[in-house]
């Protein structure tokens, strides 16, 4: 069954059936103010920290048909009675003549037709404004006049989202609502609660006269009369109660009488949900967004931002699904994931949990550097603030306070208190930014390390370059019995928590990749001594990996504290791990023959029609020595599931060995656009990547979960653009080195790089996977596969002939 379609012209996914298998969402605003809205109009909105400044009550665990956070009711008066429905399907669950939820770039637009009334609602957050706009237009499609009322409703939560579930007495006693009267019938209904002696005020208002209001959920629903969100008893009366709640379950419901609409007549109501410290200080901004022109301008500004953001790279390949993904939805998801990290989604609820992960965001930022480099740089700087003097890093931090912690390792005092991989990812982030922008001055910026003295003062600072040097130095000095980097509490695979003394091959490979980056950077900067040192370190680790890591047909993944391998043919479960093979290739540690053999083993053992499994066979029962991986059934998540984050690494590795057909096969089988025709199996949104899909050892093989905030988005964007299409920034030019399917005749791309636009045409007349015969720039043939830096604001034509 289809639930919608892609509209590339409007850059939207259009949901046509609100009864999606699970909630499908879209993000509005950002971590300063925003959240997500779902396919039936529900919302989860916060300001700043999603755990400590939640505004709207939204429970993802509720069924699709339940009210969640926000809705709007439309009331038609006919024959002295009321017909009540919602333009969002939920909560009234009526049968619609037309229903659309247009999932756009930073907005969702709902279009519905029922009972002869057409409603269009656009939901978005204006740039740098702490308010959610719902721009509602109703049209009378009937041939007769109709009398309409519109009643938008918000259900509030306490600012401390977790307290709502842990203290059912204290929280209701602190939540209160008050009405602020204004001229011409305009009203602001405020709600506030005390949070650590800090009063914050939420408010709900509109640009239209309000005849009455309600602030108490019990009164609105008529719970004593068994009223429900589907049929609130208060809406059967002419007016709401005008009760200012002094405690309890606070809501904001505003009654708007639109009067009679003639056939074809439209009326427009604009609501605002916002937060401020003092309502009198908010009045000017509230008044601004009651003006239709200002709302239109704000929405147009949002469109302009996305137009600029996406224009930095546009592609035209023979595969339309790839074009849809790379031109619109993948870079959009990269930006959202960079903004929100793992802080707020249907799956990460922000209840004092993840915040911003050092490892996560170091990778997320790679996906936005080509499109929005200075925004990416700001995040890189925040990450470096949480790196320690010894070169390791705090595992996660909270953007609102910059307080960091060591993550899940706190819960296991018998395991090391650091993650062995965190600090290595940032090397790639810093180098990628400098390659894209040419801003080598950034390397000289001084940033404090996280360590503090007993008074909370910074102990030491270092330049950005010093930070990334210390990243590799920490791993150089943190090795185990085989000479491999120690695991720490965990590496990228959080769920394998081996006792102290375990060694990790992916930490070795990441160390190798970081050294490659530093060798390239030092060579570019003319620091031969440092480059030579890093070359020596690289050669030493490459030798160790190949001496102790090769298992015959693939590379081992770990040595445990007793020196026993995991990820070996010797193991009953977890015999092979995809990361051990892909990263050995990406880091250049695998010889050509071993790389091809290891990648063939991945294809033979781990690949499925729905993507590459993380490992196989799955564990079947808890093993305390292995840790969290054994808590999942076989085929789920890290235990033999299709953990999508790893799939682009396989694509990248295949392009390195020149196998463009297999790289594109891997790309296509996890492209969510292709899932649009089998949603009943896949279930989640087809316009974003999930974190995981259940593997073939699980009875629900093909089921996706944990969409949106996944490192998959960044790496898939890189795999598609930098490695398959081969368009990659370098310190001294723009590399164009495609590795594409043989059947392609070529492709086109437009890339903005260093204040110039490169119009690229790749021609593959001989139908090969990889190999550049010649490149001409503006009609002149150049040596190699690297177009020069122009920095002239002009358009340059680049022709690439493959051979």
Automatic annotation (TrEMBL):
In alphabetical order, the GO MF annotations are:
transferase activity
Ranges of residues in domain Glycosyl hydrolase 94 catalytic = 305-726
Print the keywords alphabetically: Transferase
InterPro entries registered for this protein in UniProt: GH94_catalytic, GH94_Enzymes, Glyco_hydrolase_94_b-supersand
Query: Which Pfam families does its entry note?
Result: GH94_b-supersand, Glyco_hydro_94
Where is the Glycosyl hydrolase 94 supersandwich domain positioned along the sequence?
Answer: 11-291
What this protein is called in its record is Glycosyl transferase
